[in-house]
Amino acid sequence: MRMLKLLVILILAGLVALVAYAYFADMTPTRSEVRTPLDMTDQPDGPAGE
Predict the structure, then answer these.
(1) Which residues are CB-neighbours of 44 under 8 A, at least 6 positions away?
(2) Angle 7-12-24 (CA atoms, 0-180°, nearest 5)?
(3) C-alpha triplet 30, 36, 50: angle, nearest 5°
(4) Are 50 and 44 in contact (CB under 8 A)?
(5) How far apart are CA 15 and CA 9, in angstroms?
(6) Is the whole-model pTM more than 0.85?
(7) What is the SS3 string spanning the chain?
(8) Nearest-CA neighbor of 13 among 2, 21, 3?
């Protein structure tokens, strides 16, 4: 019974630590502009579906 109580306490402590890390850690993404050139030479002429 003592081992089960210890396991439950460790799991709860891990969950609290995970929530605290997610809340307090600096997890903002770094933003950067991405430009990708498109090659439009292989497109068929006319509207789609022809």
Answers:
(1) 50
(2) 145
(3) 135
(4) yes
(5) 10
(6) no
(7) CHHHHHHHHHHHHHHHHHHHHHHHCCCCCCCCCCCCCCCCCCCCCCCCCC
(8) 21
Q: What is the pLDDT of residues 26-47, one digit of tens each?
A: 767 788 999 999 888 876 666 6
Determine the residue type at 14.
Answer: G
Residue 14 tokens read as 């891990």
2: its two tokens: 């003592």
Name residues whose C-beta falls within 8 Å of residue 50's C-beta, 6 or more positions apart in sequence: 44
- What are the angstrom distances between the C-alpha of 10 and each of 19, 28, 29, 30, 45? 14, 29, 31, 34, 65
